[in-house]
Structures are given as structure tokens and as C-alpha cells.
Amino acid sequence: MQQKIWTIGAGAAALAGMTLAGMGGATAQEPQERGLFGNNAEATVYRDAGYDGPAVTATRAEPNMGLSWRVQSVRVRSGRWELCEEPGYRGDCWTVDRDTPLFGAAFKGRRVQSMRPIGGNGGGGGWGSLEPGRNPSLRGMASEFYPAPAQRGYRVLACSTGSPTANCAERTANQFCTAMGWRRSARQTLETVRQRVYLADVLCTNAY
């Protein structure tokens, strides 16, 4: 069976860069290969058991994958991943940190609509276990303030993979606010706890 793989997120840009670099010689290609196949978190979900059929590769948190098929196998290149049956990391979730040739019941698989790296070597500005959190908030008529954003009982990393830059934190905050039912984040800050960098003081709003 011919295998089709779509790459989500930063991997797509890196793959395109590799293709263009290949036209100009091997020397220009090497940095792109290190960026795509280095130590950042990476996992691929497959429609069929045994890593076969259509597939999607993720290199960062993906809150809404839009898969039209159930996942029957998972290949983990690096990191520890949480796979959830609903967008926004809701519904039943499962954690995988190794290749799984049969994911869920045989011939049935599992519905996966969001996935993200958690803990381990999946990046996110530090190492070790995630901080627990209760996601407290103060809600107003047009916005909601989250001093310590959390999902499924754990604090939200400022950046799920790579360095916790301001731009990455803004994207993560926007994803968090969307998952909470708001349009975007109006502001956010970073907080370091035990060598891991988390989102803090996120103000979610529906204003453009």
C-alpha cells in the first residue's frame, strides 16, 4: 500500500527548505536536516496498524488536527506525547513515549483530534515533570484572566517544543484561549518553575 504522509507545523517548512537546499548542494542541506531530525519532539500517527496508510507527523502541539480517520498505530521519534480524542486536548487522552504498532482495539483504532508533547525530552523550555495546576480564572463580561493556565491538571508550557520565545508563547496562549472558548490572547507572560517555562497571566478575549 502506498503511504502518504502530511507534516504538521514547523516540519513542513523545514522539509520545503531541505528540498530547495538539495538543488544547491549538500552543504546547504545539512542545517535543515538537523533542524528537522534533531532532538525536538516528533511523532507520527497512522490510519492503519503497523505504521501503514495515510499518516500525519507532528513536531509541536496540535490542538485541532481535523483527522477524518481513526488512528491505529503511532511512531514516536522523540519526546513523550499526549493524544486526545477531541480538539483542544479534551475528551479521553492517552500518553505514548514509544512506537506503538497497534493503538487501540484491532481494526478500530482510536479517534485522535489533538496531540502535544508533554514532559520528557519534548522541549518546552526545561526538563522534568510538568507542574500540576487547577486553571484558576477571573471572568468578566468581555474577557477572562488566567494567572496560571492549566489543562488536564497540569500547567501549560509556554512553548511545547524548542526555546520558550515570546512569539511561541503568544501562539500557545492563543491556542489556550481558543480551547477555553475565547478568540485569542490579548496578553501573556512567562513564568519559570523548576527550570521549566510556563504561560502565566494570560488574558483571553473575543476582541480582535
Structure, described:
This protein is an alpha+beta fold. It has two domains: 5-117, Crystallins (Gamma-B Crystallin, domain 1, Sandwich); 138-205. Helix content is 20%, strand content 34%. The chain contains three helices and 13 strands; from the N terminus they run βααββββββββββαββ. It has helices at 10-24, 26-37, 166-179; strands at residues 5-8, 42-48, 52-58, 73-78, 81-86, 90-96, 114-117, 138-139, 143-146, 150-151, 154-155, 184-193, 196-205. The strands form four sheets. It has a four-stranded mixed beta sheet with strand order 1-3-2-4. A four-stranded antiparallel beta sheet has the order 8-9-13-12, with helices on one face. The protein has a three-stranded antiparallel beta sheet with strand order 6-5-7, with no helix packed on it. A hairpin with a 2-residue loop joins strand 10 (150-151) and strand 11 (154-155). The longest helix is centred in the first third of the chain and has 15 residues, at 10-24. The radius of gyration is 18 Å and the shape is globular. Residues 1-39 and 120-128 have low confidence and may be disordered.
Parts with pLDDT < 50 across at least 5 consecutive residues: 1-39, 120-128
Strand content: 25-35%
Number of helix segments? 3
Name the helix and strand elements from N-terminus to C-terminus, one letter apiece: EHHEEEEEEEEEEHEE
Structural class: alpha+beta
Helix content: 10-25%
Radius of gyration: 18 Å
Mean pLDDT: 77
Gross geometry: globular
CATH class of the largest domain: Mainly Beta
Q: What's the name of the CATH homologous superfamily of the largest domain?
A: Crystallins
Major beta sheet, strand line-up: 1-3-2-4
Largest sheet: 4 strands, mixed
